[in-house]
Amino acid sequence: MKGTTDIPFHKTLSFEELTCMVAAEGTERKSLLIEAGRVQEEYVGKNVFFRGLIEFSNYCTKNCYYCGIRKDNKNIERYDIADEDILAAARFAYKNRYGSLVLQSGERSDDKFVERISRLLRGIKKLSNGELGITISLGEQTRETYKEWFKAGAHRYLLRIESSDEELYYKIHPRDAKHDFQTRLNCLYTLKELGYQTGTGVMIGLPFQNYEHLAKDLLFMKELDIDMCGMGPYIEHHDTPLYEYRDQLWPLQRRFEVALNMIASLRILMPDINIAAATALQAIDPMGREKALKCGANVIMPNITPTANRKNYLLYENKPCTDEGADDCTNCLNVRIQMAGREVGYGEWGDSLHFHSNRGRR
Ligand code: 5AD
Ligand code: SF4
Ligand code: FES
């Protein structure tokens, strides 16, 4: 990168330029973050949207090599929050004018689970008079399931590609039918086709990953024409197969810096999408999410999972807010967002502007 004034504007960034931006250090890096903050204010303003996050179950049928709640990890207590408690958390989000919430869990696709989610979606719509927006993040499912959930009230879906490079994908997932790269891609295409606002994302600082992989990830998001993105640093977990490679990782601080570079670069590349400040940022830097809000991120996901269960949803180590309650996180984030010079968009769905500007073309 030759300096801010030379950052070619969105739509025209090449692979080489993106690689430099993602790898930026020192003053160049500073300019990149400032430029991204400027683009953010120009296109999506100062507003930050809340998505109340309910991590309602850590049962998972998959075995991703990086994840602390993978099926084969026997060292955690599994939980599944009762429907009435999930609905109570949704009521909390509604009362506190969150605008929308995210339902997330480990991946399951049995009929009982699919039906249960439909029921919950209808319940949440009902208790909020149709006002709460609902994002779901429930992994790979069949087209029928995605369709059924859309009909039941979900309108956004988050499915991280984790890495858009097939070779790297198979270094961090088992190479089997349950972790098939092409299936994951197809799921993303299906979600878009069905009319979901579609979000994806990647982990940053994985073993075997380099700046070129990350630049490719950004181009992948552009190509897929996503509406939302959630991406954050990879943080090793001692009960996972990838822990073995911990000595080969970038230092945590560098992973954090590159994660912000990624957010900033994506904001410049896709100025009107929604970008989340991932919770994992805060596992490295106490002000991590606020820093992200200044250089491109405009969505934050306060954890509203009932506190008793939070300690068991440890995808990675040092996860923040495991002792706090929903009220604590809401108040805390209010203050933090103001400190970052941003404003909470209370009571609004906060849809991605990109989705609406594209509607006619889908
Ligand atoms: N470090 C950072 N993020 C992780 N995730 C899972 N395990 C880790 C980890 N060790 C992320 C994945 C997944 C999301 C729910 O959490 O990207 O999509
Ligand atoms: Fe399951 Fe998601 Fe963790 Fe993979 S990343 S093991 S699908 S919870
Ligand atoms: Fe949870 Fe600050 S966001 S306590």
In N-to-C order, the SSE pattern is: HHEHEHEHEHHEEHEHEHHEHHEH
Overall pLDDT level: 93
Q: What's the tally of helices?
A: 14
The count of domains is: 1
Query: CATH class, anyone?
Result: Alpha Beta
Q: Architecture, CATH level 2?
A: Alpha-Beta Barrel
* Gross geometry: globular
What fraction of residues sit in β-strands?
A: 5-15%
- Strands, total number: 10
Report how far apart the termini are.
Answer: 34 Å
Bound molecules: 5'-deoxyadenosine, iron/sulfur cluster, FE2/S2 (inorganic) cluster
> Superfamily at the CATH H level?
Aldolase class I
Major sheet details: 10 strands, parallel
Helix content: 40-55%
| Helix/strand/pairing category | alpha/beta
